[in-house]
């Protein structure tokens, strides 16, 4: 149902909302606020430069070819292949196993 202006009461319902905030008329205050905000952010968001020590994370890793370990020499007690295998695992984490009986 439509309401005509003539049927509205003369005293409208009073609102309990506060009046609107005043708007700044000049641009100077907004520029000043921007400068203050920029200065605050520059000082509060300072993150130190992170420099990791080289002994934990070397800058450059050398690429090594894993040593070739003969399967037959692992069974012999006279060979140093077991020591060579352990050294390779400790240094680079792998080795090449050859002569293990499976053709290419």
Automatic annotation (TrEMBL):
It comes from the Eukaryota. Residues 1-30 are annotated as: Disordered. PANTHER family: 2-OXOGLUTARATE (2OG) AND FE(II)-DEPENDENT OXYGENASE SUPERFAMILY PROTEIN, DOWNSTREAM TARGET OF AGL15-4. This is 2-OXOGLUTARATE (2OG) AND FE(II)-DEPENDENT OXYGENASE SUPERFAMILY PROTEIN-RELATED. The lineage of its organism: Eukaryota, Viridiplantae, Streptophyta, Embryophyta, Tracheophyta.
């Amino acid at each position: 149902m439509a309401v005509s202006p003539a049927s509205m009461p003369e005293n409208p319902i009073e609102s309990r909302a506060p009046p609107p905030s005043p708007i700044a008329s000049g641009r100077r205050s907004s520029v000043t606020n921007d400068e203050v905000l920029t200065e605050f952010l520059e000082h509060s968001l300072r993150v130190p430069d992170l420099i990791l020590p080289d002994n934990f994370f070397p800058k450059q890793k050398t690429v090594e070819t894993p040593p070739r370990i003969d399967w037959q020499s692992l069974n012999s007690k006279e060979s140093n292949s077991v020591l060579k295998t352990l050294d390779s695992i400790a240094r680079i984490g792998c080795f090449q196993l050859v002569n293990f009986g499976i053709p290419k």
